Each structure stands twice: as structure tokens, then as C-alpha cells.
Amino acid sequence: MYLVSACLAGVNCKYDGGNNEKEEIKRLVEEGKAILVCPEQLGGLPTPRLPSEIKGDKVFNIEGEEVTENFYRGAYETLKIAKMYKINEAIFKAKSPSCGCGEIYDGTFSGNLIDGNGITTRILKENGISVMTEHDFYKKIKKE
Q1: Is the Cβ–Cβ distance between 73 and 39 less than 8 Å?
Q2: Can you spell out the DSSP letters for 62-102?
Q3: Residue 141 has what pLDDT?
Q4: Residues 108/64, Cβ–Cβ less than 8 Å
Q5: What is the pTM of this model?
Q6: Torsion angle of the four alpha carbons 138, 113, 111, 35, in this order, in degrees rounded to the nearest 10
Q7: Parallel, antiparallel or unpaired: strands 113-115 and 103-105
Q8: What count of other Cβ atoms lies within 10 Å of the Cβ of residue 52?
Q9: Mean pLDDT per 10-residue run, the chain (144 residues)?
């Protein structure tokens, strides 16, 4: 069983109100092999919402409003779901300030990437849950 970013399964929960649907990930949900989460919605942020990026230890939206608390609230709600379903693997949206794994935007809203993880990915990893991006998932299924 996987935990997956809801946007990857076609749920319109992305910051701009759209999604990042990936057919193979949507199929996991349809087959009952994955549970959907959107940490940003779980943290109380609306959809659509202003884009956010991590700068240092805080998260800000593009207008400079700090939304760190929402991101941590969503991360801990996601962790509760993972524990409830005894899930130890997640497939999350690359580069997201919540779900990014390995690289995230640098906090300048200029498209620059830096090494790092989103807030939810950090919390899950600290609790022994492995996280991969949709790109990592595709590499994994190609090998199988």
C-alpha cells in the first residue's frame, strides 16, 4: 500500500486548482493499492491557493505571507494517515514544498531548484516512511 499525492491521481488539488495526473499512479488508487493525500489541503489551505516555496526553515506564499504552520499541520495529518493504514512507502509530487523529495524550489519563485525535501516528506522520512517522486516510481516499475 502506498500513500500518494492526490494531484498525481487526477484530483484537482494543485495550488492552481489543476492536477498532475499520472495514469499508472491513478491505477494504483483504482486497484486499492494507494491512499490519496494532499498535505496542503490537510493543513487548511484552500484550492486554488497562492504558490508557496520553502525559504530557510519557513514556508512563504508568493505574496510573502508565512504559511509554515499550515504545511506542518498537513504533514502531521498525513503522517497520522500513514500510521493508521500502516503505510511505509509514499509516491509524492516532485519539487513540491510539501511533497518534494531530493530537490525543491529555492524560495525565490524564480524556478531555481536546490537539494532538499518538502515539509511532509521530511516528517515522513523522520518517521521511517520512504518517499519517492513520481519520476522515481516510473524508474522503479520499469525495472520490474
Answers
A1: no
A2: TTS-B-HHHHHHHHHHHHHHHHHTT--EEEE-TB-TTT--S
A3: 84
A4: no
A5: 0.96
A6: 40
A7: antiparallel
A8: 27
A9: 98 98 97 98 98 97 98 98 98 98 98 98 98 94 81
C-alpha cell at 134: 513520481
Asked if 37 contacts 9 with a C-beta cutoff of 8 angstroms, the reply is no
**Per-residue confidence (pLDDT) for residue 144, from 0 to 100:** 75
Q: From CA 20, how far away is CA 93, in angstroms rounded?
A: 8
pLDDT on residue 143: 81
Cα gap 13→31, rounded to integer Å: 21
Structural domain boundaries in the chain: 2-143
**How many angstroms separate the CA atoms of 30 and 126, rounded?**
29
Contact 93, 102 (CB under 8 A): no
C-alpha cell at 77: 495529518
With CA atoms as reference, report the closest residue to 124 among 95, 96, 101, 93: 101
Which residues are within 8 A (CB) of 135 and not within 5 positions of it... i.e. 6 or more apart? Answer: 94
